[in-house]
Amino acid sequence: MTEKTFYRDSWANIHLNHIAFNIQQLKQRLSPDTNIYAVVKANAYGHGDIEVAKTALEAGAPRLAVAILDEAIRLRDAGITVPILVMGWIRPEDVWIAAERDITVTFFQKQWLEQVKKMDFSKPLTLHMKWDTGMGRIGIREEAELIEVLHNLNDDRFKLEGIFTHFATADEAEIAYYKEQQTRFNQLFACFQAHWTKPVILHTGNSAASMRFPEEMKHFVRFGISMYGLYPSKVAKAEEPIKLKPAMSLHSRLIHVKKVPAQTAISYGATYKTDKEEWIGTVPLGYADGIIRKLQGMDVLVNGQRMPIVGRVCMDQFMVKLDQSYPIGTLVTIIGSQSGNAIEMDEIADYLDTISYEVACTISARVPRLYRE
Ligand code: PMH
User: Cα–Cα distance between 28 and 36 in angstroms, integer?
Assistant: First the structure.
């Protein structure tokens, strides 16, 4: 794989072989009748959409899913020809390009179908219908709504290929609400079958549902976070239904090291003052790279040991309190392992009171991704 040249000492390693490994783990857990949509939205959760998509396809996930139309078009432009599902809402006036590029789109509104029927496009439009069984985000909720929408599928250009729903709590210890969503899906499906005879493919599960309840999955699952080697929740991590290998690590190097006396202020606002004489290192990563300001106080690894970020994180740099002098160029690991010590993305997520999904997506485009096989 060719890599773009870059001129900075900060980068993310993306282990594509780990992505392939994670897909294989899930495949072994699923019934052979259940296939995988590799979810590569948001630049593959920050990992690089095209590289991850190609790896996932080679590893045996035959289809891709994204959130928005532009993401699907990017994959088509990269020469990817497999089915791609846009899971979010698209504007009726944009369906022509979805049809043109053979991109599957999601629908759930009667009004949307009415508008699309008036649009000027000739190629077939492949559709997946979204049901809101309890997520409360997008989708058909009621049987009457479903029947009305089915009546509006009277256009020769429409091809209803699939139906899907999304679980709100499949990663939690308490599974009653997950079960309710299953029940609601089955009720809507019974209604659907009474009004529609052609075959459709069904997909319900995300990472959590597919690894925790594999026998309940339908024709496909939509595999996102765990394809990247991260568990969807602490509950899923403790249960460990499949083994995962994190695909992303984040590294930089010390670009400046200095010994400062007690009472020396570090960074904007002078919020940190040294207690005594201290070694301070400067790392060329900042909030513009996704090292957000709230990470002040979080540890990074230097020489295999934990050292805290001190003072406010700047746009392009942060400072770290070192235990001794280190040469310029010393490796700093923000996410990943060094000489047996590790800082997982989950630990950063906990520190920020968020989830690993958000940490991964926040690593900005300015950080080069290096693809490792
Ligand atoms: N399907 C849909 C419709 C989704 O929105 C997502 C993730 C997935 C599948 C994959 O889920 P997983 O990553 O847990 O496997 N969507 C989001 C979201 O909207 N916010 O966080 C994750």
Answer: 12
